[in-house]
Write a structure and sequence with these properties.
The protein has a single domain, classed as Gcn5-related N-acetyltransferase (GNAT) (Aminopeptidase). It is about 25% helix and about 35% strand. It is built from 3 helices and 7 strands. The N and C termini lie far apart (about 30 Å).
Length: about 150
């Protein structure tokens, strides 16, 4: 797999890469999952974006990492997305591993919270996140709040 990892704060992202990150998220979360919602929620401006590009400079996976106090009291990971053509390659697990390494480097040993689609709970459990017991519908999709305790 010939891909490269990039980590940038929003202020340092190229316009092209932010466009491609947003386009990938819309492709997956809005179109593929048939879930109309406000994808650009203003939080990207406060986020670090960890993403992978292929040899054609196309964004094929991304996450956004938010500091404490934006979505939760803890640092949070969200908008975890992998292009359909890269699923099953291990890239989803790699992007979570790299996101957690970045959080440790940037913020130290901190708790991390996320909102997971319920059907992905086992995926996040493989990265030591545990359900808080809070389950809810978000945009018509079952979600569970999960926490990584340091």
């Amino acid at each position: 797999m010939n891909i490269n990892k990039i980590i940038s704060h929003f202020n340092d992202l190229s316009v092209d890469h932010f466009h491609d990150i947003a386009a990938l998220r819309i492709k997956i979360f809005v179109i593929e999952q048939n879930c109309p919602y406000q994808e650009l929620d203003g939080k990207d401006k406060d986020a670090f974006h960890l993403y992978y590009i292929n040899q054609n400079n196309e964004v094929v996976a991304a996450t956004r990492i938010l500091p404490q106090g934006i979505s939760y009291d803890e640092v949070s990971i969200g908008r975890v997305v992998v292009d359909e053509s890269y699923r099953g390659t291990g890239l989803g697990h790699e992007i979570m591993k790299q996101s957690m390494l970045f959080i440790k480097e940037q913020y130290g040993d901190v708790d991390v919270r996320l909102s997971a689609q319920k059907h992905l709970e086992n995926y996040y459990e493989r990265h030591d996140f545990r359900s808080t017991g809070k389950e809810y519908l978000e945009d018509g999709i079952p979600h569970v709040e999960m926490l990584y305790k340091f």
